[in-house]
Amino acid sequence: MDKLTTVDGRAYPFGMKNVDTDIIIPAHWLKTISRNGMGRGAFEVLRKEPGNVFDDPTYVGSPILIAGDNFGCGSSREHAAWAIADLGIKVVIAPSFSDIFSGNAFKNGILTVVLPQAAIDRLMDVAQGTDGTPDPIHVDLEAQTVTTRFQDRFAFDIDPFRKHCLLGGLDEIGLTLDQADVISGYEVTQAQERPWIVPAGAVA
Asked: pLDDT band at 194, cuts 50/70/90?
């Protein structure tokens, strides 16, 4: 998992409320177990509508998505997080998230930021730009802030464990490898104190 410290750039001014995981990635995409290419199916139904924000050249490739209340509700499919990650989105900002979606996003290196609706409304305006040119948004995970060049500054909360993992780029395998010395030391101690439970040659 890549480290996530700061994210700068344009944001999709999406804003839709109660977006369930079937809207994020339709069920027929669940036939695959590969994360690669899932971005092609992200928001597939909405992207059939002309003028949709996800295919607007102004926003394509944006690393931030601004969404409405209750984002990621519905089924627990992890494919929804895969699709968003494959679309290039690293941060989703909304007034609230489904707990399961938020957990899946975290496990896939996506930061979910909860802010009040008033902050969301302001960030939507910034993302759209006053003259039609989007203004970038800055997300700082270490400082736990979302800022703009207009002096907007919104602080957000995050679970300390999730913050540690995202800053360090640590998924479940990475967390285990981070304790490699401790694990090796334990195995050596076990081999010395209880050699009958350790297969021959298992500990160097």
From this structure: confident
- Residue 140 tokens read as 């700082």
Q: Tokens in use for 35?
A: 């994360």
Beta bridge partners of 139: 7, 146
**C-alpha to C-alpha distance for 56 and 54, rounded to whole angstroms:** 6
What amino acid occupies position 183?
I
DSSP strand pairing (145-147 vs 153-155): antiparallel
Residue 57 CB neighbours (<10 A): 6
Confidence of residue 157 (pLDDT cuts 50, 70, 90): very high
Burial of 171 (0-12, 13-18, 19+ CB in 10 A): middle
For the entire predicted model, the pTM comes to: 0.89
